[in-house]
Amino acid sequence: MEFLSSRLIIRPRDRERSLAFYRDALGLAVYREFPGGTVFFLGNGHLEISGRGHGPPDPDLAIWLQVRDLDAAVAELKAAGVPIDKEPKLEPWGLVESWLTDPDGIKIVLVEVPPEHPMRRDSRRPGG
């Protein structure tokens, strides 16, 4: 099996409210639009807002978004009026994280990977 692309699909209760949040507050760029849906660039993936949801989000679901400078990202969000649920903090696993919630209650974790973190190292052996 070969996977060529991926995207996360959100079915919001209020599409316009969610579009405004992801487009205007988070500043995601639009990848494409189609009748009833909008797809945003999301780093190496895509986020689709389409259809209409009817219930609360799964509490076990979270969107993980890596940013270059977490303090700057949080300041930008606060300036846009986005409430921050958890201020940036270095976690025991070595990532700096901050949490917020989208208009439908989906948790979003913003992550900064410090320079010394293993995710930043090339673990391949020299020569191969």
Automatic annotation (TrEMBL):
Domain of life: Bacteria
Residues of the VOC domain: 2-113
Alphabetized InterPro entries for the sequence: Glyas_Bleomycin-R_OHBP_Dase (IPR029068), Glyas_Fos-R_dOase_dom (IPR004360), VOC_core (IPR037523)
Protein name per Swiss-Prot or TrEMBL: VOC family protein
Species for this entry: Actinokineospora soli
Lineage: Bacteria, Bacillati, Actinomycetota, Actinomycetes, Pseudonocardiales
